[in-house]
TrEMBL record:
It comes from Microbacterium bandirmense. This is Ribulose-phosphate 3-epimerase. Its EC number is 5.1.3.1. Belongs to the ribulose-phosphate 3-epimerase family. Its cofactor is a divalent metal cation; Mn(2+); Zn(2+); Fe(2+).
């Protein structure tokens, strides 16, 4: 397994975004949390800001939409050039149609589940997605504690993907650090979002390398 490390720019300095994007150049994707103060009780930014982030980022964008009505808004993020667009299962009216639309525009299609949402609703539609995001905190804020009780959901999704011969990426988001990443890798995650653990480090490139190494070691043991 070649783990992907996606720093969350939620933990960046919003008025020094260009510099803070340059600092994560050795990572795989820049994770961009779009929050609408409706699906979650927090507000970040929308397509106008993400378009500038797309133009500025040295690495591709992994957009995480925590918004109501993604059926209407998600395609715009694919159109502005985001490599990956993930919407919440709980918010989408027609997740399969939306995933097909995202892929037809040229982005990877992702679907996210909140901690209280079961993963088995996704089993039958796994092939429609390039990425499944298992939230390991309640969406809305950075800096929260990792929820180890999400590991059975992740493990079951990994087993189901293997059973179906699917190459879908399994992403975890929330509370990922050097102390927690091994658990998630061992349970089957291959794509890891980390906000505070990356931007809080003195040496960001070393933090990215450290997370990658821990995930790789844990997945080989698991
Ligand atoms: O989607 C998110 C919150 O809803 C963020 O991506 C996530 O919380 C990252 O922050 P941290 O690594 O500090 O937990
Ligand atoms: Fe996120």
């Amino acid at each position: 397994m070649n783990p992907r490390i996606n720093p969350s720019i939620l933990a960046a300095d919003f008025v020094n975004m260009q510099a803070d994007l340059a600092r994560i150049a050795t990572a795989d994707f820049a994770h961009v949390d779009v929050m609408d103060n409706h699906f979650v009780p927090n507000l970040t930014f929308g397509p106008q800001m993400v378009e500038r982030i797309q133009a500025t980022s040295p690495i591709p964008l992994d957009v995480h939409l925590m918004i109501t009505d993604p059926d209407r808004w998600a395609p715009g993020y694919a159109e502005l050039g985001a490599a990956s667009v993930t919407f919440h299962l709980e918010a989408a009216a027609d997740p399969v149609a939306l995933a097909r639309r995202l892929r037809s525009i040229g982005s990877r299609a992702g679907v996210a589940v909140k901690p209280g949402t079961a993963g088995d609703a996704l089993y039958e539609i796994l092939d429609e997605f390039d990425q499944i995001l298992v939230m390991t905190v309640e969406p809305g804020f950075g800096g929260q504690s990792f929820m180890p009780e999400m590991m059975p959901k992740l493990r079951a999704l990994r087993e189901e993907a293997t059973r179906r011969g699917s190459d879908v990426w399994l992403q975890v988001d929330g509370g990922i650090s050097e102390a927690t990443i091994a658990q998630a890798a061992e349970a089957g995650a291959d794509t890891f979002v980390a906000g505070s653990a990356v931007y809080g480090a003195d040496d960001i490139a070393a933090a990215v390398t450290g997370l990658r190494q821990r995930a790789r070691a844990a997945s080989l043991e698991g």
